[in-house]
Design brief:
FAD/NAD(P)-binding domain; binds flavin-adenine dinucleotide; eight-stranded mixed sheet
């Protein structure tokens, strides 16, 4: 096995890890990036499926995502707008497809009024929240105790209003059932995009795409690092603190009470030291002064830490979990919906595909629709055969666009739940009460180990923008320590 020495070892070649590595390298530190997969990009992945270029993971850029916009510009990439000419479609409780323009769904006037009122209330609450520190809001504890669904149902008994309001942070963003996360978590999701109104405005949140695909961002960042990016290197073991100098000594299992006390003392000593770190991947061992864990926190437990992570981290990481959404790609000979005056934008809190968009590639003659199936609906679909699943999904798309939607020439489901090195989509969030209880500790370094990922972002939370911001933050923390 190769053994190398660097100032900093970064684990994970997603947007967060590669941003951090580039920043550290620019500041004069040596780096190595260890990536488990055979490609860089993590949740950014552009691939060609049966001749169609598809963005299997993240793709959209919104105007508030300045860190991503700056990176895209720095890398010389160009963007284009999502197609949005024409009418959108909404399917209500009666199953009827109705055309509409603007942001408000075509619902009964009374429902519209309620949606407007609660949206204004939510915008006011979100305006009081710092996305980087939502736990500091005076009502954070109270708002973290009530589920998003329960809070909405306390505001109104209009079921259609609740479903439509719940949707923006539920199926469309955190991709978990709305009774499983708190009002505070929902407000963070909205605050990370500037306001609740921004989240429900598809023209804002799904504004632009990068020509050629968003995975070019990590690919070009990795290119700048050259041979310092190591693929196919799942990190299995991290020895840190005083023990990092002798990683081959057998680990202390701490079976007796006296040993356990000694182990706790060692963890505490290591957590406040910067004695260095030895990171052991499948084919390479890196000795470094600092490490950055740039992977989803739900995957930390895949790595064996010696000494173990402190008690707080052991507890906290059990309260973070991934949402789950299937991103469905359907490519047609032509964008047939445009001929009917449809923009391709479609929503329904009653449909299997709760939202769908025109996702035609820049300069492509063929038309592509992208649809999303979230949380419990996604679980249920994966209990079916692939054929049944496809039939159910295309049936749902046909409720928006008509029978032509049932006959794509290319059909593909992005299933991030099966991806060993991600395990869900789009990203992670705390369970009920977890954000207020642990949020302030989630980015705190542990000894020489720093943490970066979109899952722990404030601004840009769950998005590529947040991953880039967290990469910068972790790099800055290390640069600060090297100066100190
Ligand atoms: C279907 C889908 C659609 C999305 N749509 C959008 C969108 O339109 N716009 C947007 O901004 N965001 C979107 N997102 C979210 C966005 O893609 C992510 O938030 C972002 O890419 C995460 O970047 P990251 O670097 O923080 O983490 P990741 O991309 O998860 O990178 C972590 C890396 O660590 C590696 N790794 C894990 N464990 C180990 C180990 N033990 N050893 C070595 N390497 C390891 C992984 O392989 C991975 O490459 C979407 C995500 C998905 C899945």
């Amino acid at each position: 096995m190769d053994e190398i020495t660097r100032d900093v070892v970064v684990i994970g070649a997603g947007a967060a890890g590669l941003t951090a590595a580039n920043k550290l390298r620019k500041a004069g530190l040596s780096v190595a990036v260890l990536e488990a997969r055979d490609r860089v990009g993590g949740r950014l992945w552009t691939d060609v499926i049966e001749g169609a270029m598809l963005e299997l993971g993240g793709q959209w850029v919104s105007p508030d995502q300045q860190a991503l916009i700056d990176t895209v510009a720095d890398l010389g990439l160009s963007t284009y707008s999502r197609y949005r000419e024409g009418d959108s479609v909404y399917v209500g409780a009666d199953g009827e497809a109705k055309r509409f323009t603007g942001e408000m769904f075509p619902v009964a006037e009374s429902t519209e009024r309620i949606i407007d009122e609660i949206t204004a209330r939510l915008d006011a609450m979100v305006a009081e929240i710092d996305p980087d520190k939502p736990w500091e809001h005076p009502r954070a504890a109270e708002w973290d105790k009530v589920s998003w669904d329960a809070w909405l149902r306390q505001q109104t008994d209009d079921d259609e209003a609740v479903r439509n309001l719940a949707f923006a942070t539920g199926s469309a963003m955190l991709t978990k059932p709305t009774h499983t996360f708190s009002l505070l978590q929902s407000l963070l999701m909205a605050a990370s995009a500037g306001s609740y109104s921004h989240l429900v405005d598809a023209d804002f949140i799904l504004d632009k795409r990068v020509a050629g695909g968003l995975q070019q961002v990590p690919e070009l960042l990795a290119e700048r690092l050259g041979d310092d990016v190591f693929l196919n290197q799942p990190v299995r073991r991290i020895v840190w603190g005083a023990e990092s100098a002798t990683p081959d000594r057998p680990a202390d299992t701490g079976r007796r009470v006296a040993d356990l006390r000694a182990l706790t003392a060692r963890v505490e000593a290591a957590a406040s030291s910067s004695d260095g770190v030895t990171v052991i991947a499948e084919g390479v061992t890196v000795r470094a002064r600092f490490a950055i864990l740039a992977l989803a926190p739900v995957l930390y437990s895949r790595i064996s830490f010696e000494p173990p992570m402190p008690r707080l981290q052991h507890q906290m990481h059990q309260h973070i979990s991934m949402g789950f959404v299937i991103k469905v790609h359907a490519v047609y000979e032509t964008p047939f919906w445009r001929e009917q005056g449809l923009s391709g934008t479609a929503f329904s809190p009653y449909e299997l595909c709760h939202e769908a968009y025109d996702n035609t590639n820049h300069g492509d003659e063929r038309g592509t629709l992208v649809g999303f199936v979230s949380d419990q609906n996604a679980d249920d679909l994966f209990r079916l055969s692939a054929e049944e699943r496809k039939e159910r999904i295309l049936e749902s798309l046909s409720h928006y666009y008509g029978p032509a939607a049932k006959a794509p020439v290319v059909y593909y489901e992005s299933d991030w739940g099966t991806e060993e090195w991600t395990r869900g989509a789009y990203a992670a969030s705390f369970d009920l009460g977890g954000l207020h209880r642990y949020g302030a500790d989630q980015r705190r370094p542990v000894g020489p180990i720093h943490l970066a990922c979109s899952d722990m972002a404030g601004a840009g939370y769950q998005h590529v923008d947040g991953a880039i911001r967290q990469g910068h933050r972790a790099a800055d923390e290390i640069l600060e320590r090297t100066r100190g």
